[in-house]
UniProtKB/TrEMBL annotation:
Gene3D superfamilies (UniProt xref): Cyclin-like
Keyword terms, alphabetized: Cyclin
The protein's name: RNA polymerase II holoenzyme cyclin-like subunit
Chain intervals with Polar residues compositional bias: 313-330
Cyclin-like domain: residues covered: 52-151, 164-252
Family in the record: Belongs to the cyclin family. Cyclin C subfamily.
Keyword Glycoprotein: no
Alphabetical list of InterPro entries matching this protein: Cyclin-like_dom, Cyclin-like_sf, Cyclin/Ssn8, Cyclin_N
Organism from which the protein derives: Polyplosphaeria fusca
GO biological process: regulation of transcription by RNA polymerase II
A Pfam family of this chain: Cyclin_N
Chain positions covered by the region annotation Disordered: 297-347
Listed CDD domains: CYCLIN_SpCG1C_ScCTK2-like_rpt2
Length: 386
């Protein structure tokens, strides 16, 4: 049976399975930005403006911090899947906040969110109401983007709230609520202006904010290295490498975009630079890379912690093969389950193990098997024509 004939006998495509990603490291984020063709400067601008919009509107509506956290995470995930020319950043921010209000049970209508945004830009005597007809079209756009928000997050409603653990640790650590604790709270908000919420766990983010606040107030930070202290990374099943990456991400934000943050305008630039130097020296002494690596990337590092080039190409993320000409497990899987939006519907799953088991079972029915037969054929002798 020829391969073409075998493919014709294959039934409907089983569908495309997309597994939710609770965490994604920096290499995956960079690859997503390359795929949508967004430059670093442009990405910074859209990210900071969108998060600032969400923060100002949620303060106006007096929404809790957990709604802000969820909205920003959905906004980040949406931008990693869609190029900037496909949407307006303000509409995406509004849709993310609208979706987060539903998830966190702080229900607000799309018109109320838009009305709060409009009134922030208007004098008090010109404020509009949620029933204003000018909000009709923007409201429809937000409702339409809500579905895309959920799809980009793979319908994963598991969210992280570092402020909850951070407040408990601040109380247990004996920090002053009007100085160090207040600074740590503002740091946790600035942290969401970066991609840290997509990369780090709840405990990592909480400990990073507390230590950074302690460094800003010139406190002794040796307790963070004591394994018997409640503020040690070992007590919360995280690593020093991840905490250093988080603090350095926040410091990069403060040094490069001072005006767009809550903390940076209150300190001199030299303060941030001195803290960055100390953290860089600690990372270099421990041979920590700048960003946490996937297991496949760690195997391709040299002794200095830098990624080794392979056949002229830099080490890529686990989504791409390590050796040119081969296919990665994710690529082989995609050849079986199809590409999103093509060859059938898209299904979203939370359990990667269950998804792999299903894909392994389905893959058996897409294998093209051929059988060879040996047939003896008698050939008559040719007749000679005179």
């Amino acid at each position: 049976m020829s391969p073409a004939a075998a493919e014709e006998r294959i039934g409907p495509h089983p569908s495309h399975i997309e597994v939710a990603q609770s965490y994604m490291l920096q290499s995956k984020i960079q690859q997503c930005l390359v795929n949508i063709g967004m430059s670093e400067a442009q990405e910074d601008q859209v990210r900071l403006r969108g998060v600032e919009w969400i923060d100002s509107v949620r303060r106006s509506l007096q929404l809790p911090i957990r709604t802000f956290n969820t909205a920003v995470v959905y906004y980040h995930k949406f931008r990693l899947k869609h190029a900037d020319h496909e949407y307006n950043w303000a509409d995406a921010a509004a849709a993310a906040l609208f979706t987060a209000c539903k998830i966190e049970d702080t229900l607000k209508k799309s018109r109320e969110i838009l009305c709060a945004s409009w009134n922030l830009k208007l004098p008090s005597n010109d404020h509009i109401s949620p029933d204003d007809p000018r909000l009709d079209l923007p409201s429809k756009n937000i409702v339409g983007l809500e579905r895309l928000m959920l799809e980009c997050a793979s319908f994963d409603f598991r969210n992280r709230y570092p402020q909850k653990i951070m407040v408990k640790l601040l109380k247990a650590g004996g920090f002053d609520k009007d100085t160090e604790a207040k600074t740590a709270w503002n740091i946790s908000i600035d942290m969401y202006r970066t991609f840290t919420p997509l990369k780090q766990s709840t405990s990592t983010m909480a400990l990073s904010c507390i230590e950074l606040a302690a460094r800003l107030h010139d406190m002794d930070v040796s307790r963070f290295a004591d394994d018997n202290d409640i503020l040690s990374c070992k007590s919360w099943y995280t690593s020093r490498e991840e905490i250093l990456e988080t603090m350095r991400d926040i410091l990069d934000l403060w040094t490069q975009h001072r005006a767009a943050t809550l903390i940076a305008p209150h300190y001199e630039l030299e303060k941030f630079l001195s803290i960055s130097i100390a953290l860089n020296q600690e990372a270099a002494a421990a041979n920590f890379p700048r960003y946490t690596l996937y297991a496949s990337e760690r195997d391709k590092q040299d002794s200095n912690g830098a990624s080794k080039p392979r056949n002229g190409n830099e080490v890529t993320s686990p989504l791409t093969p390590a050796t040119p000409g081969t296919t990665s497990p994710r690529q082989r899987l995609a050849s079986v389950i199809g590409t999103r939006g093509q060859n059938g519907t898209t299904r979203f799953m939370l359990d990667p193990a269950k998804a792999r088991l299903e894909m392994k079972e389905v893959e058996k029915y897409f294998k093209i098997e051929e059988e060879e037969y040996e047939v003896e054929v008698s050939v008559e002798p040719e007749k000679r024509v005179r």
